[in-house]
Hints:
The protein has 591 residues and is mostly beta strands.
Amino acid sequence: TFRAPSGPSGNLGGVNGRQTGYGTQIGSIDQLHTQGSLIATSRNFDLAIQGRGFFVVSDGTQDFYTRVGTFALDRDSNFVDSRTGFKVQNASGSDITLDTDSVAPAVATTEVSFAGNLPAIITGPLAEIQESSVAFEDHQPAELATTFSAGVLDLAGDDLVLNIDDANPVTITFPASFTAATPTDVKNFIEAEIASRNISPGLTVDISQGALTLVSNNTGNTAGLSASGQAATELGIAGLQESGSESLAVATTELNDLSANVTDYVDGDIILLTGINAAGQSVNVSFTYGQDGTTMDDLLSSFKNAFPDTSFVLRDGKFVGTNDNTGETNLSLFIKDASGTTGTSQWSNHTFEATVHGADADTRATTITVYDSLGIPHTLSGVYTRQDDETWNLDLSVPAGEGTITGSPITQINFDSEGRYRGASGSAVDIAWSSNASPQTIEVDFGTIGELSGLTQLGEPSSAQAVSQNGFASGTLGSINVTQGGVIQGYYSNGAIIDMDTLAVAVFQNNEGLAKEGSTLFKQSDNSGVPLIGQATVGGAGGIVAGSLEGSNVDTAEEFVRLIEAQRSFQGSARIVTTADEIFAELLQIV
């Protein structure tokens, strides 16, 4: 100090002191505990902590803490720090020893989960339906009903002009002898005149109902009759014009009125009903016209008798036969006229054909391996079968000789209008094994009701299957891994994953207060605080990353910059010393 500082006094202000510095000295050496980047090593026992915390290792007398997780198993299966041999501690404060010769015990299956789609499109069960390929039609003729039903008429010399089916008019002149003609006289004369002129199809005259009626031989919409002339006036049909009609055949339709009829049947004519019934038996039954009836309904009754396992109706002019049972069938039906009959019909134009082919129930098969209490595997087979009410049954079975499934079947698996699972009757099966294994109950899981997470019934192909089960055979240890939470898990050959131990993770209030012990090890100090020993990801501790090591947290680029700055500072200081030396040398020469 060349002059001490002085404060203001009187008329003078304060003056700063004149002092030189004492040089430089170390203020503190601090530890940097920021997170380093993680480097993948693909080695299961290389562990890093992402976040706060330290691994805990022990030499048997005291604990040490480290962020470097280069661990391994020694010959006694102790989990150790491979650099020091210190034993890694678990969350309970004990040495971690892993039983590498352990066996995962067998676990009997208690649940099987099913998922996938059962098709909404029905292909079975279906009953065979056979029906006429072409509808039968009831064709009626055109009719002109006269008012002449009894007594006599004077038709001598009168003309009767008939227009039949819109063809050229036909004029019939009654002879002079018809001064007192009866209905029969008129009928016979008209029919004779039509026949002599070869008018086809012509007409007939009917007096069966009392009144004289002219009936066209043609039927249907093309049939027509009209009359004019003095005789038509006398008969009460002058100016009338009638047409035939066509309509789908009904139960009361006469066989002779069918459009298929070519020649009218007479009593005693035989119509043959042949084919194969649903049971595969030949059918050959005779329908006798007159004796067995004359209408479509009468013929239908004969079908019902000939094919008792098939229900018949007349629908929209067609014979429709529906098998009483679902499933495939060889059902076939034929109608034909027996040889030698008077009447004939074109039955071949109305052959039966299958509009719905009989089909067995839709099924979907699936299998999955389940385990008994001894760890013996068994194939559990399941078959879904669609029922007539569009629900499904699931029939579960095991191979013959291995066991027996008892208990109620699983039925009524049903879905809502959007294909979501809605429930089932029965949810488990009981199995009695033939071996010494204990009897077991297996629950079936079809998914959550009202969701599409398990079984569904949509318009997609079938994909329903058993997807998982929770049983295992016994297994040997295959590998070891560490979870994010620090749980050491063993992976066994049977697929079982068993927790073997849990790593300890220590958290300090003041990481910078830890005492260095070398080899990246630290010890507790008075300024670090007491360690909080727990599990990874709990209580503020970070998570474990297996297969990785934490790299250095030093910012190399920044440290290089500081090194360069120090170098330049040193160079500048050296120049100052050289300059001062030159000044003193020059001063000495002057003196």
